[in-house]
Amino acid sequence: MTNAANTQPRPRFVPGQPDMWAFVLFEALVFTAYFVVYVVRRTQSPELFLESQAHLDLRVGVFHTLVLLASSWSVARCVQAARERSFRTALTNAFLTLLLGFVFLVSKVLEWAAKIEEGFGFTSDEFFSFYYFLTAIHFLHLLIGFGVLAICVHQLWSPARRSQETIETCATYWHTIDFLWVLIFALLYVMR
Amino acid sequence: MSALLRRIAWHWRYDEKRELWIGWWTLVVFYNLYGLLFFVVARTQPPPKPSLEPSEIVQWFDDRHYGLLFGYAIVFIVGGATAIMNATLAYTMRRMSVSRAFAYSYLVIYALATLPGMLIMGVACTVGAMRPDRDPELMSWLYDFAFLSFEGTMGVFLIGSLVWMVAVLLDRNRVFPKWFGYLNLCNALTEVVVAPAWIFKRGAFAWDGAIAWWINMAVFVTYTAVFLTLLRRMILREDFGSGPLPDLPR
Question: What is the ipTM metric for this complex?
Answer without folding.
Answer: 0.89
